[in-house]
Amino acid sequence: MAEDLKEIMAKEKLSRADFLGFSDGANLAMMFAKKYPDSVNRLVLNSGNTTTDGLNKIAIFLFHLVENWDSFLGFFSKRYKQKGQITDLITRNIGVSKADLTKIKNPTLVIVGQRDVIKLSHSRYIAKTIPNSKYVVIPKNGHTLARTDPVSFNTEVLKFLI
Hints:
Blueprint: H1 2-11, E1 17-22, H2 24-35, E2 40-46, H3 57-74, H4 78-90, H5 98-102, E3 108-113, H6 120-129, E4 133-138, H7 145-148, H8 150-161
Parallel strand pairs: 1-2, 2-3, 3-4
């Protein structure tokens, strides 16, 4: 997907851009920054994780359950086959190591809800490891922070970007 994004940027004649990614989108943003650091201006990482250890145990169990269910239904339905491929992304390490994170020099905002399925300790790890990053936790929110509390989310993102 990082290569696809790079290709889109080339076709649109964009040399650099700010990236805001949610969940797997945050994971993609980290992978993109790893592969194409000169194409990234700033990063906003909302609820991303570099390893499955970054997820809380209940979430891992539920995602595996959904993945297996979607895989089974995928034999009968194209929709569930596609859904299973998306769920599969959640249950894999993304291939961005601690050493890779230390090389991301772009200003980065790591923003999560207090009750996210991503462990707060993992989000802190990402923020601490990326040298030029800021870490923000929005109280009383979970994984869908941007949807459930758009005012708080947008306020923090705009403060960072402006």
